[in-house]
Design brief:
- Strand 2 (72-75) and strand 3 form a beta hairpin.
- 41% of the residues lie in helices and 22% in strands.
- The strands form two sheets. The chain has a six-stranded mixed sheet, with helices on both faces.
- By secondary structure, it is of the alpha/beta class.
Length: 258
């Protein structure tokens, strides 16, 4: 059988490098269904509701703000150690089309717990809509991916081995999901210590959420507590912010005599 040999595109090469970097992380998973009816009610009443990616990015960041272990990385250099970040950096898997090829690029969101939902949503939307060379995290990753393999391998080694660089490149948590494509349970990989994936929200107010984590950093008990706190934040702080934003949304102008 004679097939066709095709060169590997730069975005695809990036995914290959990401998978290689993720291969030695001992991930463990825990999935739960969260009851988010108050959040869904608030979101349903908003004229321009934020996307679920933005909602989960800010919600997890709010939980991690008060739990240092969720901001902790495992690093190897100069010796194996834990590296606690002073603030949150989220990476959001962003589906795009580059040169006619579907791909996924990681969009960086710094300090999401200090931003409004609208600002977080805007950063994620920029990653979906703006040209790749206008998105700093995309530009940085793609420039590195274009390097020859020996230089690229060294750049990845630096990015993975030192706590500060690992945080800048990969953050302390990632958010992904395929809800826009029908949903499903996604067991994603990442060099980062925590990955949150979410499913489609159901009519009864439930939504499936999975957290994968680096077992070297923590155990399942903390993740179980994280789910409980995450549900509280979604239905509390996040829902309240969405309800409060309704007062600042532009209202339609009523025509004279209408």
């Amino acid at each position: 059988m004679r097939g066709t040999t095709r060169s590997i595109s730069v975005p695809r090469r990036l995914i290959i490098d990401l998978m290689r970097a993720s291969s030695d992380v001992p991930f463990v998973s825990l999935a739960r269904t969260l009851d988010i009816r108050p959040l869904l009610d608030a979101r349903g009443a908003a004229a321009k509701p934020p996307g679920f990616a933005a909602i989960f990015v800010k919600a997890f960041a709010l939980v991690a703000r008060d739990e240092p272990t969720l901001r902790t990385l495992y690093v190897k250099w100069p010796w194996p150690a834990f590296y606690e970040l002073p603030r949150n950096i989220a990476m959001v898997a962003t589906a795009r089309v580059e040169d006619g090829e579907p791909c996924v690029l990681p969009q960086r969101v710094g300090d999401p717990d200090r931003l409004t939902l609208s600002e977080v949503d805007g950063i994620i939307r920029q990653g979906k809509e703006a040209p790749a060379d206008q998105v700093p995290s995309f530009r940085k990753m793609l420039l590195t991916t274009r390097l020859p393999w020996p230089l690229r391998r060294f750049a990845w080694w630096v990015g993975l081995s030192f706590g500060r660089q690992r945080a800048n490149w990969f953050g302390n948590f990632a958010v992904t999901g395929v809800s826009a494509y029908g949903g499903g349970q996604l067991q994603a990989l990442s060099p980062g210590p925590y990955i949150l994936s979410f499913d489609v929200a159901q009519p009864d107010g439930g939504i499936g959420v999975m957290i994968r984590w680096d077992h070297r950093v923590t155990d399942a008990a903390l993740i179980a507590k994280t789910f409980a706190r995450l549900e509280q934040v979604l239905n509390g702080e996040i829902a309240a912010e969405i309800r409060a934003s309704r007062g600042t949304e532009a209202k339609p102008v009523r025509a004279i005599g209408g």
